[in-house]
Amino acid sequence: MATNLKNLSDYDPTLVPSAKGMKFGIVVSEWNQEITEALLSGAYNTLVKHGAKEENILVARVPGSFELTHGARHLIKNTDVDAVICLGCVIKGDTPHFDYVCQGVTQGISQLNVKYKKPVIFGVLTTNDEQQAKDRAGGKLGNKGDEGAITAIKMVSLVKTLKKHK
Ligand SMILES: Nc1c(NC[C@H](O)[C@H](O)[C@H](O)CO)[nH]c(=O)[nH]c1=O
Ligand SMILES: CC(=O)[C@@H](O)COP(=O)(O)O
């Protein structure tokens, strides 16, 4: 369903497990910083709203969305986080560079989910223009950061549940 038909921040809170005791890494890109900081606020506040302690949320910043994969891998390998949320904003310019950045970060994050046991959440906006990004970073269509946080909580809960069945 297209985002303009479903607000990114709309969800049923009764279906979201408690994030108490969960540890999260958030890696956020500095490109389009006004947008990505809004995504970070959304994700951070949503994690806390659902029970995560602030000391259990580790934030790392990288230059651009293409570097999100590398930052997420370091959080996975070098910390005890249960999941990593990747936040970025790629806005189409005048050249095909947009396509390569989006392809690179998408494939990179997908590979991390295959290679490691910790969920890595794709919270990257890939938009045609700045307004589309603003609409999805706390604007009329909600906040992609909220969506990333809820997704991370649900995935950590799922992984913990499935581990009990080993
Ligand atoms: N144009 C955007 C970029 N470009 C930079 C790349 O992500 C990367 O940092 C560079 O190619 C060096 O490896 N990044 C974004 O996050 N958003 C953009 O709109
Ligand atoms: C996604 C990008 O790298 C893009 O914003 C860069 O702009 P341009 O394609 O005009 O160089």
Automatic annotation (TrEMBL):
Its EC number is 2.5.1.78. The keyword Transferase applies. It comes from the Bacteria. Keywords: Riboflavin biosynthesis, Transferase. Pfam families: DMRL_synthase. Catalyzes the formation of 6,7-dimethyl-8-ribityllumazine by condensation of 5-amino-6-(D-ribitylamino)uracil with 3,4-dihydroxy-2-butanone 4-phosphate. This is the penultimate step in the biosynthesis of riboflavin. This is 6,7-dimethyl-8-ribityllumazine synthase. It comes from Thermophagus xiamenensis.
